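ARCHIVE CARD
Drawer: 12
Card no.: 0347
Subject: one protein chain, sequence and derived structure
Cross-reference: see card 0346
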Amino acid sequence: SFENVAREAGIDLVNPLSSVILDVNKDGRMDILTAQSDLRDSRIKRRLYLFVNQDKNENRSVRFYLRGKKSNSPGLNATLELKLKKDGKVFRRIQQVAYSYGGLSPQNEEGILYGVESGAELESVKVVWPYSNTLNANRAGLEKFYSLKDINFEKNVEVTLCEGGQFLIGRRSCSSH
């Protein structure tokens, strides 16, 4: 069950127009930018709200940027499977790359963000790239594996995954690699 704590938290908005989930201050924690509109009721005051995530936990994050060549350049509709290890146990987290853009629709910043529990180690990420030159029932060539064991992962890290199989630390271009 859930308890509505929006008013106590200061986020009880009337008639929100759109929300953007992004990491405004690049601390690895997702923040919320939203607007309150008078579109449906002129008595509502138009305002813009920024809610900065101030959680003080010891968790970390990893954000992946995809750079496709044969598939579309941002890797839209690719599937990522992150493999983590903690206390000898292996955990898998799966996300699909889907960004939305536009005038009134919700918008997101580029990149697939994973929260990573304190003490968990990055093992690898598998990307199933969204293309096939020919009908290929066994998906050969669509899957790329990236070993992440050697990444310095003390806090938050950004990783660019290149369709050719290499990865780069940071948000970068793959063209020269």
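Annotation on reverse: The radius of gyration is 19 Å. The helical segments are 6-9.
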